Amino acid sequence: MPEENGRVARIYWERSERFARARDVYAQRSRRAAHARLVAFLGIALPLVLVPFGRDTPPALFGIALVFLIGFVVLVVYDNRLKLRISRYDELVKINEEGRSRLARDWEALPSSEEVPSDPDHPFADDLDLFGGASLFSLLGTVATPLGRDVLRRWLLEPAGRGTILKRQAAVAELAPLIDLRQEITATGRTMPSADAAALEGFLAWAEGDPWLRPRPHLVWTARLLSLAPSALIILNVAGIVTWQAWATALILNIAFTFTAGSGVHRTFARAFARENEFQGYARLLATVAQSPFSCSALTDIKAELSQGHGTAQRQMKRLHRLLALAEVRYSMTYMPIQALTLWDFHVLWRLERWQLTAGRHARRWLEALAEFDALAAFAGLCYENPDWAFPEIIEAETPSLEATGLGHPLLPDGVRVVNDVKVGPPGTFLFVTGSNMSGKSTLLRAIGTNTVLARAGAPVCASAMRLPPLILETSMRVHDSLQQGLSHFMAELTRLKGVVEAARRARRDRNGTLLYLLDDVLQGTNTAERRIAARKIIHHLLAEGAIGGVTSHDLALADTEDLSVACDPVHFSEQIHEGPNGPGISFDYRLRPGVATSKNALKLLEIVGLDEPLAKDESAEEST
What we know:
Elements: H1 2-50, H2 59-104, H3 136-139, H4 146-157, H5 162-175, H6 179-191, H7 197-208, H8 217-238, H9 244-260, H10 262-272, H11 276-290, H12 297-305, H13 313-327, H14 335-342, H15 344-385, E1 393-394, E2 402-407, E3 420-424, E4 430-434, H16 441-457, E5 465-468, E6 471-476, H17 489-510, E7 514-520, H18 528-544, E8 548-552, H19 562-567, E9 568-572, E10 575-580, E11 583-588, E12 593-594, H20 602-608, H21 617-624
Parallel strand pairs: 1-5, 4-8, 4-9, 6-7, 7-8
Antiparallel strand pairs: 2-3, 2-5, 9-12, 10-11
Helix pairs in contact: 1-2, 2-6, 4-15, 5-15, 6-11, 6-15, 7-15, 8-9, 8-15, 9-14, 11-13, 11-15, 12-15, 13-15
């Protein structure tokens, strides 16, 4: 309902304004901290400036400079924390602004989902606009992590069982009103350094693999002994027992050991880790989920998963973050002196491999549980933003059919979307949709398909009520010819339709669900007579395999056979032609009506765009020639 949509938009606007004010407060504090840092820097520099000019610098001034130095360090730490808060509030502002853009279906204002791969050969992803710019994935664009995006993509493409769907629906309903929690998850995920899925998979492969250093005790003990030698020899040199050449030799040996045996340490670091701040972000995400109270089984199962292993997930991720911070020393200017003196890398890797053995085996399960929560939260955002949408009823019936009341296309804004009551099935019947150009036939099929995708994934659907059995979805709508494969449009569509028929046969043979097919303007690339015969044969195959579905066509006589006329459930869209001061016009109400269409508009559209004028005499002569 528009008023509900407006209520949510106001909430997003109020939150955006509140977070913007908080961001500005911290930004002002950050500017003050920057001015204070400048003053502290001048206080530190003053004694250093006076000394070269031979000034008699009072010792107290150096003490004051030391105080300024301490203050400078404190201010740097304080300002870094302020910047983190500014970044968080700025992200929360963007998240709420994006919420208003989603409500308006303002796709250009939303982050792109082009990085999410879409398979053009998939049975329905391209036809139903699941991925890309103005897509279902963009409408669900609050996922915070790479693994969360992968889970959401898989849920949209693969049907879940009835029990799983019901569990997800309960989780979505519980998460929907928890806007603070959901936006906190999204903001934390977005402020993490962006690591791609390959880097994360590299870390998980290391975490689940075998240690490199621990099976080599000779390297472990050699590193321990060599790391003690320089410090001990320096002490002995100060005591006058050995010369400086002794500890210098020990440093050289340590450097040589680093560039020989230590190469394996560096390879392990490179294979295992993205930037260490990535895992600090995961620790915060895991803590946020683990500390939130839930009641439904899907969410309590996720919390239970985060408690598996040696300690809780968030505690172990914090520990990993601290260890990785130690490993990051190898990128600093002080690395070589520290490494030469202590063989730092070997000791860090020893502790990391201890984490690998105690917690690493559980890391994938932790991150996968977090990814599932991330995907559920995206569905919950859809539920919150569309409170008039319904959770579909998943039924087990001997005569399966899809029934929806007030069904609309979820990618259209409320002010544009027109809803209709739709029934597809039972087996042995098909929905036959006719109507003139631009009347809404294709949009109806996409509304059925896209809502079926949402229903199979456990999300709410754009309808006031919907009942459907477990369905396997196949579509043939946007068929493209292929120069690379040498396929004409007609042959490409035949290949696609063959896949639909084979999917219906598999569904009937395996008894794993009912096939729902959606065929838009079947076999456009051939003449009318052959097209009608071929389309009828394809429909006969699908009816014989017990599939249910919808077919659109401009051919009003497609179902005019004895058997198809009994099987088809005819519905149509119509248009209104009206005369205006500038000539004829056409309008559509997109309301579904029973029966086959009784009107056509191709010639009228030709007149509207000004292409109905008779040819000039010379043009007529050329045409006849």
